[in-house]
Structures are given as structure tokens and as C-alpha cells.
Structure prediction request, 93 residues.
Amino acid sequence: MSFLTRFPIHAIKIDRSIVTDAATDANHAAVAKAVIAVARVLSIKGLAEGIETQEQLNFFKTAQCDDAQGYMFGEPLPSSACTELVGRIRNKM
Prediction:
């Protein structure tokens, strides 16, 4: 983990394999919370990858994870569709 102090890293991503069972498995929950704690100590963000259920989202909110991504929020988009979506959102602001 020493690379975390040598490079300009802005976030630690918690792998989907941990996220999937963090809300129901004590070992996965402990790993997720430890990663979030490391992120806090290093003043970088923790990011939960692969959020698919409300239960998972609730767990990571309670664990004070900074960011989350996954199918619960939307499916991956090709860059052209993403650009179009961001443009539509900006036009509404």
C-alpha cells in the first residue's frame, strides 16, 4: 500500500467483490470499513464500486463512504451518450 503515498491518488475504489456482500457478511464489512478508514487517513475519497441494491447503498452511507457507483444509479454509457446526458443536465440548470 506504500504506493498510496507516492502517487497523486484521489480515491481508493472498493472492489465490487467486497461491495456485493458488505451489507451481509461481517468479513466483507470489515474490509470495506478498513478501506474507508485508510482513505480518510490519507485525505482521499473512498469509492464503493458495484452498488446494485438499496441495502448496499445504506451500508456504505452508514460507513461514511464518500462516493458510490453501480447499476443502481445507471448502466455504463458509451462516451457519446454520456456527453449527451451531461449536456441535457446542464441545459436544465
